[in-house]
Design goal:
The structure holds two protein chains of two kinds. Chain A is an all-beta fold. Helix content of chain A is 0%, strand content 56%. By secondary structure, chain B is mostly beta strands. Helix content of chain B is 0%, strand content 55%. In chain B, the strands form two sheets. In chain B, strands 2, 4, 5, 9, 10 and 11 form a six-stranded mixed sheet that branches.
């Protein structure tokens, strides 16, 4: 059973389109995250949710909108995609804040 | 915010050698220090972690040491094997989310 699963694994789309990435965790964790990994492998936090409440939004353009319908899901919607949005996006979850994070397998987004 | 520096960016060793990766951090309030291994095409996976009330932790061939006074911690891998080849990330957390170092690509040659 996959602990943190995100879909799709690959996403190729044109500039200006709107797309969503879904994430689900079956670990019963309280906290979920979205990270962005750029071409140099740098992992940067984008959002953090605790019990469906947004607790961290790290200077991410407002074209990115996370949504947490319940504690087990954290989806990422991106409007008006730009070339610079191309990256691998990782969803993660942890039992509470400041504890170990479990990562999904990533979504490779390519904007052409 | 927290600033995490990781060195080296690449490390090549022969199978059986030891490998050491070092990280420094800026916020003295940070109290959780995990290490992650990322294989090609996969998400980062926790391999070992340490909290600020402990100076060293070991799990088989891997160990982590922490010097809170100097604000640095290190990952030690002994008897390296080709399957240890991957990108390794240190991370630091104080109150909420993890701040990651920029990663070390470890290559273990047979």
């Amino acid at each position: 059973d996959t602990a943190v699963s995100q879909t799709p694994k690959y996403l190729v789309t044109q500039m200006g389109n709107d797309k969503s990435i879904k994430c689900e965790q079956n670990l019963g964790h309280d906290t979920m995250y979205w990270y962005k990994q750029d071409s140099k492998k740098f992992l940067k936090i984008m959002f953090s949710y605790n019990n469906k409440e947004l607790i961290i939004n790290e200077t991410v353009p407002n074209r990115f909108s996370p949504k947490s319908p319940d504690k087990a899901h954290l989806n990422l919607h991106i409007n008006s995609l730009e070339l610079g949005d191309s990256a691998v996006y990782f969803c993660a979850s942890s039992p509470h804040q400041n504890t170990e994070a479990f990562f999904g397998q990533g979504t490779r987004l390519t904007v052409v | 915010g927290e600033n995490v520096e990781q060195h080296p960016s690449t490390l090549s060793v022969q199978e059986g050698d030891s490998a050491v990766i070092k990280c420094t951090y800026s916020d003295s309030a940070s109290n959780y220090f995990p290490w992650y291994k990322q294989e090609l095409g996969k998400g980062p996976q926790l391999i070992i972690d340490i909290r600020s009330n402990v100076g060293e932790k070991k799990d088989q061939r891997i160990a982590v040491t922490l010097n809170k006074t100097a604000k640095h911690f290190s990952l030690h891998i002994t008897e390296t094997q080709p399957e240890d080849s991957a990108v390794y990330f240190c991370a630091v957390s104080g109150y909420s989310t993890l701040t990651f170092g920029k990663g070390t690509m470890l290559l273990v040659s047979p």
